[in-house]
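Record pair follows.
FIRST:
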Amino acid sequence: MASPREGAPRPHVWRTATVEITCTDDGVVTVVGDADIAAETALLAAIRTALAKPTPVVVVDLTAATFLDARAVSVLVGGFWVAAHEGRQLRLTGVHGVIGRVLDATGTLALLTGDAVVPLPGIRRAGPHLPTLRAPAGTRRRVEPPDDRRALSLGLDPGVSALTDVDFLATADRPLLIGAVLEAALTSTGATAVDVQRVEPGDGSLHIVGHHGFGRAFLDFFAQVDVDDPTACAAALRLNRPIEIDDVTRHPIFAGRGSLAALRDAGTRSVYSYPLAGPSGAPIGVLSFHYARPSAERASRSDVALAASAAMRVVVNY
């Protein structure tokens, strides 16, 4: 075997009993062997190392991989969305045989091999906080974060765990998905109330499909929101970008409008509405965070909205 040229940087290497994973300085991760449950932490470390490199495309070479566990798939999906959030790509190469079948069965094959077009307009990170990668909590059909100590040891965010859990997404239906989005929004951002709206295919209006913290008066008033209505969610839908309003009483969108009274009666002083991007990049819904006072949790809200968009693309019956 030829030795590396003198002075050439050596790749980072992680080894377990079943796999060897390397990461080069140009962001190429190579997996050799079985990426099973025992390899989860090593793969997570390799993906994080690759994402820290200043490369526009992180390549994960699976040519020599012989097995891919659901936990490994979840780490790869998490890495994909971290890269996408930063305007970069994570792409798998060398997909073959059982590896391809695992990815196909989890609905991630097109996403991770570059065959899916997934633009993310308007959602960008504020500040240096790095989005988290996610490994499955090991449960199906239940929206439960992993143990906080384990999550923190891997650098994970328990609040958005279910939304990037491959096992959960493979079995979730729309009500379960909406519940997971609401739970993530509440636990990760400190919002006092949250609502999720779906874009109706017929007329393009927004309809509330899930909420937490609102009474009947609010739900009746915002039961249907048209794209030109004077609301933050309508503006987020129309402009396809986050609309962040620190004080609804001072913002021109609500000046002299009934929507202002409806918000204040519900206890909302600030509202932050994020479009949820569909496969084409056009919004398929809007996620709105409500607070009794202005909030600085912009990075957390962006994380939740990004994860919710990804989950809704996977759960096709959203």
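SECOND:
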Amino acid sequence: MKRNIELVVLVILYMLLGTFIINKTDERSIFMLLYSSCLYISMGAIFFANLYFLFSLFQKGQLKRYLLLNLFLLAITYFTSAFLYASWMADVFKNKFLVSHLFHPTIVQDSLPLLVFVLFFSFIYAGIKHLILARKFILLKKITFYSIAVIFIIGAVFFINMQMDLKYKGDQQTMFIEHQYQSLDEVLQLPQFRSKVVYIDLWYSSCSPCIQEFQHLVSLKEQLKGKEIAYLYLARETSHPNSRQRWINAVKKYNLQGWHIYMSKPLEQQVWKTILGNQQDSTTAAYPRYLLSDKNGNLVSYDAKRPSTGKVVIAQIKALL
């Protein structure tokens, strides 16, 4: 009876947490939503399978069987999640899905560590629960100490990795504007944008349509090379815990040469208030969005053409040069 009550409570808490996380997901691509849901369900499957079934094998000394079943469970959950992530990437970049994509570094990095961590956590949780019930408090103290030490080390590794990513300051082609401005007009009056046409890209790191457009920027920039034009990327803050780190990594990954601002909430609100106030047919703040300002720093297009339109957007920009 107590076991059933514990199971029901844990499942309800897990479902509530999952609902909150999925609802906070910024990405609205069906594949990414399915991936997020699948990964969360996979983590739950690993946790509950170990807590209520597999840990008993460890207690009985069936270590080989315990490890093999966990490896099987880990493989099934990883490849299911990886398939959905790879499908999202194929959809974004319009590529053919390949089995090798399941081992793409980005997919491995975003999925496998979480699954392994949950596997480790479930083992520790089940072990501590068993020791408490068996009243083996001396052993419990030792295991608790070592568990905390391992979790601290893992946390330190992730923290150091995040700090190293955040230290990236760009180069001569990729530059960051650190000051938090309150309006886009203030930004466009900066020296680097004076007497230049500015092509403004509003995006965020997990926006699949935004990412899809990046591949067309290379051709656009090449055809406008040497012209008096600057590229400004305005990135929104997402609900992801390490949103800023993901933003910087995306800038590096997609080689987004130009000026970058990680928008504060007031700036984002002001930008969209300006856009929607000048676009009668626009009622929602949908990403990506492209703007154009002339050489005097005045916004002249609140819904500029996307990079994928090719000659159309180039003609729109050249008209202002």
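COMMENT: The longest strand covers residues 197-203.
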